[in-house]
Structures are given as C-alpha cells and as structure tokens.
Design brief:
The protein contains 5 helices and 10 strands, in the order H-E-E-E-E-H-E-H-E-H-E-E-E-E-H. By secondary structure, it is of the alpha+beta class. It has a single domain, classed as 3-Layer(aba) Sandwich (Glutaredoxin). The strands form 2 sheets. It has an 8-stranded mixed beta sheet, sandwiched between helices. Helix 1 crosses helix 5 and helix 2 crosses helix 5.
Length: 199
C-alpha cells in the first residue's frame, strides 16, 4: 500500500480547499461516510485500561479512531482491531500519533485489567475505555452507534451485538467520518488527512 504518498497528496489538496470557519472537506472514498456538518462529540468519562477515569476530551490534540466492541467478541472485534493495528503501523510509522480507542459495550465483563490484557498484544498505544453499559449506550448514540446484549445461554454466557463502524474524530474532537468495512488504505488516507490538519 502506498499510503504515505497518497495521504500526502490528499493533504496538500485539502490544505488548498479549507474554508474559513471550518475544516477542509474530506475526499469521497468507498465505504467511507463523510460527515457534512462535523461537530464536537459531547464529552464523557469512562475508565481506561489502567483503572483511571479518562475524559474523552483528554484525547484531543491528535485524531482518534473510535470502535465500539468487547473483549469476548468471537470474530468481528479481533478482525477490526487487527485492521486498526495494521493501519497504526502503516506509512513507516507516520500514523502512530493517531489514537486507536476501543469503547467496551460489555462493561459488566470488560474490567480495566481485562481490557489491558486484550489490547496489550495489539499495541501499547491503544486506549481501552469501559464503564456501565447504560452510560455507554448513551455515549454510543453520540456516534450513531448501537449495541444490545443478547439473551444469556444456560451457562450464563452471552453475546453483545454492536455496530461495526470505526469513527474518525479530528484533533478538535469533531466527528468527521465513519468507516463501514472500508479498506485499510482508505482509512489510513482519512487518518493521515486529519493528522495533517492544524491542531
């Protein structure tokens, strides 16, 4: 993937297209929804993988890619986080400053320690956030994400159905785009453009 060269060209294009009072438009790419009226995500506080209260606004200053998932997820979450790991490592490390954030939709089981052991093998840079599922449901709505707990099996195990999109938030905390199974290259292009914007 020639991510860095492509992102650099698009960043140059975006810098010439910025309008007063708002961010530069993002390009139309397959399976990427560009928010036509980006606004800051209302701030919230959850517990991170180190057991500390973390305000979402503390991530401002760098772009963030936010995914709602959980550690017991059988396939979707490991696949999506694996793709985000590849994105994070692409472009010869140029995208390392982009924050990758997993917001747990299964706060009952996803303790900080569980999140830490789950995210650790992926990257020490990834941020995991967990909390009461009712509070998280309201937070998910701010991103237009949804999730619900399925009925438990006889052994007490259960699954959580959830949105699979990845949400792109810029340095100012504005929700700029969402990825619906977009390619790693296209996600990296958007992430690179957000990273190139003035902060």
């Amino acid at each position: 993937m020639r991510i860095s060269a492509r992102a650099a060209l698009l960043a140059l294009f975006a810098s010439t297209c910025a309008w007063a009072g708002g961010p530069a438009p993002l390009p139309a790419l397959p399976r990427v929804y560009v928010n036509p009226d980006p606004a800051p995500v209302a701030d919230f506080t959850l517990t991170d993988q180190d057991g500390k209260a973390r305000r979402f606004s503390s991530l401002q200053g760098q772009p963030a890619l936010v995914f709602f998932g959980f550690t017991h997820c059988p396939n979707v979450c490991p696949t999506q986080l694996g793709r985000l790991k590849l994105l994070h490592e692409s472009g010869n490390g140029a995208l390392k400053p982009v924050r990758i954030v997993l917001v747990s939709v299964d706060g009952a089981r996803d303790t900080p320690a569980r999140l830490r052991s789950f995210l650790g093998p992926l990257s020490a840079d990834f941020v995991g956030l967990t909390g009461d599922p009712k509070a998280t449901s309201g937070i998910a709505a701010r991103f237009a994400a949804v999730f619900f707990k399925e009925p438990a099996a006889k052994d007490g195990s259960y699954n959580v159905m959830h949105s699979t999109q990845v949400f792109a938030v810029d340095k100012a905390g504005r929700l700029r785009a969402s990825f619906n199974d977009a390619s790693i290259e296209d996600m990296a292009t958007i992430a690179g453009l957000l990273l190139a914007e003035p902060g």
